[in-house]
Design goal:
The protein is an alpha/beta fold. It has 12 helices and 16 strands. The longest helix is centred in the middle third of the chain and has 14 residues.
Length: about 350
């Protein structure tokens, strides 16, 4: 079968590989569409914390079941599905309490021998597979995984009805987090970025305020003036230097910052501001089963405008162009899908 590899930093190629060997508890999926995620770009640049080239890339997927293992009971050939692309050991305290994302032996596509999703076929444990509602398209289905990231961030932030929220970063994860925050009841949502077309996407997704912070060293003060006060919650969807200190400065006393982005290097912040204001910084890592189910239901209910998020759809043999496009922010790209 054909598969897309990040073979080395900034080098994407298509290769022929063996079909996945299906275990008794696994489902084989014919991939219809798979997405290029921001974390895939970290791999593309050789910066990812644990997913290193050469690797079959990808973890966002929608497709059709074509074979099931002998122990599979919940799926049949022809089912339209998506995947929660993480698998725990199943026996540790974290797994048993529903926090597979905490498992010290967590597996994911592209590591520990698990093929990535950017291939003609993808095998996944039955426990990680979810049926798509009949009304949901494959393009919507491929957004379930990144939307679950946003849903999890909103849960970690404990966003409540009427909250004033800032989302820093208007890439696909930031925009999907915006959708989750609005579904949770946030009534004032400011989205920041340095790219105007991404901020247009935020406006189309329902942001009440947007701000291009390029060349604005005092932008946090302007942001608070724009919405008429400090923020209850700040969700950080971009990992640039200094962003955590800026996020804290946006908060009211007792407010909470949630870190979603993948960070490289050290972040520094004003500990006095954090402590004296009893502010909080909360880490956020992938999602739980509850988040994935909520993501499916919210997309099915119309809370995500996929025509805003999905800007390009390319054939798998154009994947290299897709990675370059996302990395360099070319052609107004947001979410780029690769189609098989």
């Amino acid at each position: 079968m054909k598969a897309v590899f990040v073979e080395d930093a900034y080098k994407v190629v298509v290769k022929d590989v063996e079909m996945p060997q299906l275990a008794a508890h696994e489902v084989l999926i014919k991939v219809k569409v798979t997405g290029i995620c921001g974390s895939d770009i970290h791999t593309y640049k050789g910066l990812h914390l644990f997913r290193k080239p050469p690797v079959i890339i990808g973890h966002e997927i929608a497709g059709e079941v074509v074979q099931v293992g002998e122990a599979v009971t919940k799926f049949k050939v022809g089912d339209r599905v998506t995947v929660e692309p993480q698998s725990g050991c199943g026996t540790c305290e974290n797994c048993l309490t529903g926090n597979v994302n905490y498992c010290g032996d967590r597996g994911a596509p592209g590591i520990k021998g698990w093929y990535g999703t950017m291939a003609e076929y993808f095998a996944a444990p039955e426990t990680c597979v979810f049926k798509l509602p009949d009304s949901m398209t494959y393009d919507q289905g491929v957004l379930v995984e990144p939307f679950a990231v946003g849903v999890h961030a909103v849960r970690k932030g404990d966003i409540q009805l009427g909250d004033r929220v800032a989302i820093l970063g208007a890439g696909p994860i930031g925009l999907l987090t915006l959708a989750a925050a609005k579904a949770a009841g946030a009534t004032t949502v400011l989205v920041t970025d340095v790219i105007d077309y991404a901020l247009e996407g935020a406006q189309n997704m329902g942001a009440t305020h947007t701000m291009n912070i390029m060349d604005k060293p005092e932008w946090t003060t302007e942001a608070k003036e724009l919405v008429g006060g400090e923020f209850d919650k700040v969700l950080v969807a971009v990992g640039v230097p200094g962003i955590i200190d800026q996020a804290i400065s946006l908060l009211r006393k007792g407010g909470r910052v949630v870190t979603i982005a993948m960070f490289h290097g050290t972040q520094t912040f004003d500990i006095v501001n954090l402590q004296q204001g009893e502010k909080e910084i909360v880490g956020c890592m992938t999602y739980t089963r509850e988040d994935t189910i909520a993501a499916i239901n919210l997309i099915a209910a119309g809370h995500v405008q996929e025509d805003v998020i999905v800007t390009h759809k390319l054939s798998y043999d154009e994947a290299a162009r897709g990675f370059e496009m996302v990395d360099k922010k070319e052609d107004r790209s947001l979410k780029v899908l690769v189609e098989f």
